[in-house]
Amino acid sequence: MWKTKKYDLIAIGTGSAMMVVQAYLEMKPRARIAVIDKDPPGGICLTKGCVPTKLLVYPAEVLRTVEAARALGVRCDNLRLDFKAIMQRVQASVESEISRIRAALEAAPNIDYYPTAAAFSGPYRLRVGEREIKSGLILLGTGSCPSTPAIENLAAVPYYTSDTILSLQAPPRRLTIVGGGYIAAEYGHFFAAAGTEVTIVGRNPRFLPEEEPEVSALAKTHMGRRMTILTGHSVVSVSREAGGVIRATIRRSDTGSTRTCCSEALLVATGRASNSAILDAAKAGIQTDAEGWIRTDAYLQTNQPGIWALGDATGRHLFKHVANYEAQIVYYNALRNQHIAADYQVVPHAVFTYPEVAAVGLKETEAVEAYGEDNIRIGFERYANTTKGEAMGVEDCFVKIVMASEGSRILGAHIIGPQASTLIQAVVNLMAFPTESAAALAQAMYTHPALSEVVGRAAMNTMPLTQYRRLWGDGAL
Fold this sequence. Notes:
Elements: E1 5-6, E2 9-12, H1 17-27, E3 33-36, H2 43-47, H3 50-68, H4 83-107, E4 111-114, E5 118-122, E6 125-128, E7 131-134, E8 138-140, E9 144-146, E10 174-178, H5 182-193, E11 197-202, H6 213-223, E12 228-231, E13 233-240, E14 246-252, E15 258-263, E16 265-268, E17 272-274, E18 307-309, H7 320-335, E19 349-351, E20 357-361, H8 364-371, E21 376-382, H9 387-392, E22 398-404, E23 410-416, H10 420-431, H11 438-443, H12 453-460, E24 462-464, H13 465-474
Parallel strand pairs: 1-7, 2-3, 2-8, 3-4, 8-18, 10-11, 10-16, 11-12
Antiparallel strand pairs: 5-6, 6-7, 9-17, 13-14, 14-15, 19-20, 20-23, 21-22, 21-24, 22-23
Helix pairs in contact: 1-7, 3-4, 3-5
C-alpha cells in the first residue's frame, strides 16, 4: 500500500459534481483535487441517459410527425428510420464528448484523475486501486444504476437495461419491455418507430403512473396505436427458447391469469437504484436509507461534516437538471460557507414520446390533500382550440393548470402534446418567482398564432375542481 495522499477536494463522479470542481479551482487555482469515476467520464446523462436517448427519440418524433402530416396533405412515401445511421450518430456524439472530457481531466495540472472504482476505507479516506487518498472535503456524485426486478430465471436470460441497450447494432423484430415508466415509454417510442414490434409490460394499473390520470390515459391511447401496452401486468418468469427467442410469462394483477410473450430482445426498464454499496459508505460513517440512497440534510451535507452528496446519489429527483441545481447548492454551502436549503417545489420533467408529456409541481390529488377540494381551481385548454393547434391537426392533447382558488396561485401544470417540454417552461419560470399567479399567464401577450397560446388560454379558462371533474367524466372537455 502506497502512502496516503491528501487532497483539498475529492469528487466521486464526473457528472454535475464537476461544476463544483471547476468552481473550486477558480477560487483556489493551486488546489489539489482527485476526481474518481469507474465509468466513462461525463456522468450518466451524457453516457447512458439524456443525451443518447434524445438523439434516438428525436428522429422517431420526426418520423411520427411526418406520418401524422399525411392528414394535412403532406405526402412522403417509404418513410423509415435508418437504425444503423442513428446509432452511429449517437455513438459518435457521445464518444466525442467522453474523449474530450477524459483528455481535459488527464491534462489538468491540478487534478489527479482515477478512472476506477472507489470505496471508503475509513472516515474521510478512500481506497482507489492500490492507493489510499483522503480529504476533509468530499463530493459524492455517484449516480445510480438500473433497478432489476425479481423475475424468475432472469439471470439466465440475456437482457438489456438502459445502460446496455445502446449496444444494439440492429433493431430486434420483437422487443419486450419490462416497466411502464419514463424509460420504457421513451425506448418503446423509438423502437416502435424503427419497425420493432414492441410490448410494454407495466405492473401499475396506469401507464406512466407518475402523471395525471388523464395524461396517462391519453398517452397510452396514442402510443398504444403503435405498440402493445399492458398495464396491471407483471413479468413473473422468462426463459430462452430455440433460436434465441425469449419467452416471458406475464401475470395479470387483478385476476392472476397468465399469458406469454415471445421476442428476440428483452429490455428491463423498471427504474433506477442506488449504487452506493460500491462506496462502502458505512466505513466512513455515512448514513444511507433502507434502499441505499445517501442521506443528506436540507443543505445536501451528509451526517459527516464536509461530505456532500448530489444528483442521483440521494435518490430524490433523478433528473440532470436537478443534479445541476444541487451542484449550485453544494457550491454555496460547501465552498462559500452559506446556509442555503435545496428547494424542490418547482421541479419540472418531461417524457420525450409521441406525444410529449411534461409536468411541474403538484398533481390534482396532491393539491386537494394540501389545500382542500373547495380551494382548488383547474385551468384547461385543448391544443385544437388554438389556431396553431388546429393547423397542426392536434385533436385531443391539452394543458391542465392546477391552482389555488385564492389568488390563483399556480400549484402545478401538466401538458400532453407537441412541444410540451418547451411549453411547460413558461409555467416553471412563473412558479419560481414570488407572484406565482396564473393571472400573469392569462394577461401576458402571446404571439399569434403560436402554440404557446394554449398555455395562456388554459390560465384564462378556469373552473372549480368539481366542474372540471364533471366535464371530464362526461367527455365534454
